[in-house]
Amino acid sequence: MTDVAISIRGVSKAFGAGDNVHYALRNIDLDIRHREILMLMGPSGSGKTTLLSIMGGILTPTSGDIAVDGVSMSKLSQRQLAQVRLSSIGFIFQEYNLFPTLDCIGNLLVALDLRGIRGTKAKAIAMQRLEDVGMSDKAAEYPAKLSGGQKQRLAIARALAGDPRVLLADEPTAALDSENGLRIMALLQALAREHGRAVVIVTHDNRITRFADRVVRIEDGRLHTARTPEEAS
After folding, report:
1. Among the residues of 5-118, which ranges form H helices?
2. What is the pTM of this model?
3. Which SS3 state, helix, strand or coil, does residue 232 take?
4. 3-state secondary structure string across 134-194
5. What pLDDT, in 10s, does the model give residues 148-176?
6. Per CATH, which fold does 4-232 belong to?
């Protein structure tokens, strides 16, 4: 399997039509490798979240192509695309998107059920993922009783439930204090280094750039030269 987790070539994304067309992205070329943490930074409205959504197959580019582990997303049917999202990509959303009526382990079991994993095997995997993020003692707790940091760790555990090769995170530290933010980043760094995952993070948080292997800046939908974390700080 190629070391390149995500390959983006000539990707543009337009919204609207005619005189009202707006390009959120313009001719993006970018590779993200396994075992790498890449951070996307830039002002609000610059196209960061749009690019992350295209990487995850949530949005379709207007032009260009994106491949995940060598598989071109543009050549897949909607059913095949959904399968790639389930099997290869984990999402960490800024708003957590947890199910409030399910306890912690239940939130993970739903994610596993979508992947066809059920019963005793699913429970074992769910408990292991909770253990991975230091939440095994909260398995029976409901999201309403969790702190912001605990909710984020639960969201990460759920994203990892299907053992994805690619992890996409939208502002994972935005609502966290410094201590919890750094704890989350240490966890994501370990996932990249020790488990070979490609981690892409959209962020405005300069506190966490030291965890990045590369920082890419987007402005007005255009990609700027990739920089080292030191240059981005």
Report:
1. 48-55, 78-88, 104-114
2. 0.87
3. helix
4. CCHHHCCCCHHHCCHHHHHHHHHHHHCCCCCCEEEEECCCCCCCHHHHHHHHHHHHHHHHH
5. 888 988 998 998 888 888 999 998 887 77
6. Rossmann fold (3.40.50)
